[in-house]
């Protein structure tokens, strides 16, 4: 407390245990979380209104601008059609973000239903369900998505469905584990004793306890789903549209890697930063929502 004449002024300082004064510290984890959130917010705005971030068209081709390196006029250079790379990446964020969000939404809801039924009823239902899940999980998720995409055809919804099916087992196992730890509690037995219907028990007493681990896994899963989707596009199994997604741009850049490295490097950098950002936020959510975590 400082005095100026007869006026008292409070100074918000933090006091150490040894009596010294210091300002609050900002850790590297806080900086990482802030940068991740800012990057995801930027990509979300790109997906919603890409015209706010570029004045070029993503479809106009110009033979005079083929394979220009990064410059003041074209920040990330141009591709083999003379299109501005920054513009293509900004407009391509919509399909990449939408693919990841829809895949996680479908996969997590399906995994939630399967995991809750299996964990609550147990017995032969749980045994059969988990054996099927075990068989599916023996196939790597990306490989399973490739198999499904080849089988049902390369449309946007089919790619979303393929990635969703590939990751349903992971969500189902996490939810089942949470449900099995909840159903053994006394308030669940009390609800059963008074004749509470099973759907009410699941929705009112069990579902809230499953949301925390599911939310953490879904946050990380968005990045992994986008990575899987761009992998399918890179292999030629994605949707070939007028405005390509990042995976297809990355695939096209392979043919020009020795003369125009920016066509491959910048899409790969965007994909990497996106996955890392979702992983950082997922880790932070886990630390916040896990009651066993001690800071």
Which features would summarize this protein structure in a list?
single chain, 295 residues, mainly alpha, MetI-like fold, two-stranded antiparallel ribbon, 9 helices, elongated, disordered N terminus
CATH homologous superfamily placement = MetI-like
**Percentage of helical residues?**
55-70%
Distinct helical segment count: 9
CATH class: Mainly Alpha
Head-to-tail CA distance between termini: 31 Å
Proportion of residues in β-strands? under 5%
Along the chain, the helix and strand elements come as: EEEEHHHHHHHHH
- For the CA atoms, what is the radius of gyration? 25 Å
The strand count comes to 4
- CATH architecture descriptor: Orthogonal Bundle
Number of domains: 1
Task: Indicate the mean pLDDT.
Answer: 83
Query: Structural class, judged by helices and strands?
Result: mainly alpha
Mind describing the biggest β-sheet?
2 strands, antiparallel
CATH fold field value: MetI-like fold
**General form:** elongated
In terms of per-residue confidence, which ranges show pLDDT below 50 for 5 or more consecutive residues? 1-17
Give the neighbour order of strands across the main sheet.
Answer: 1-2
């Amino acid at each position: 407390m400082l005095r100026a004449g007869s006026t008292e002024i409070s100074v918000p300082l933090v006091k150490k245990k040894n009596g010294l004064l210091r300002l609050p510290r900002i850790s590297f984890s806080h900086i990482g979380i802030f940068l991740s959130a800012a990057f995801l917010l930027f990509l979300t705005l790109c997906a919603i209104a890409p015209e706010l971030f570029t004045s070029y068209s993503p479809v106009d081709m110009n033979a005079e601008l083929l394979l220009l390196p990064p410059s003041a006029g074209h920040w990330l250079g141009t591709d083999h059609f003379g299109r501005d790379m920054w513009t293509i990446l900004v407009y391509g964020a919509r399909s990449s973000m939408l693919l990841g969000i829809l895949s996680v939404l479908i996969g997590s809801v399906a995994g939630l239903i399967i995991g809750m039924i299996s964990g609550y009823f147990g017995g032969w239902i749980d045994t059969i369900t988990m054996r099927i899940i075990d068989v599916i999980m023996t196939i790597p998720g990306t490989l399973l998505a490739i198999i499904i995409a080849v089988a049902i055809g390369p449309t946007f919804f089919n790619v979303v469905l393929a990635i969703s099916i590939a990751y349903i087992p992971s969500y189902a196992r996490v939810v089942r584990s949470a449900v099995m730890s909840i159903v053994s509690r006394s308030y669940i037995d009390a609800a059963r004793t008074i004749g509470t219907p099973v759907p009410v028990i699941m929705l009112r007493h069990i579902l809230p306890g499953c949301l925390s681990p599911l939310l953490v896994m879904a946050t990380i899963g968005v990045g992994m789903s986008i990575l899987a989707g761009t992998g399918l596009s890179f292999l030629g199994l994605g949707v070939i549209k007028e405005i390509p997604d990042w995976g297809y741009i990355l695939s096209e850049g392979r043919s020009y890697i020795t003369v125009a490295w920016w066509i491959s490097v910048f899409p790969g950098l965007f994909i990497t930063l996106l996955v890392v950002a979702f992983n950082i936020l997922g880790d932070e959510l886990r630390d916040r929502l896990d009651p066993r975590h001690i800071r």
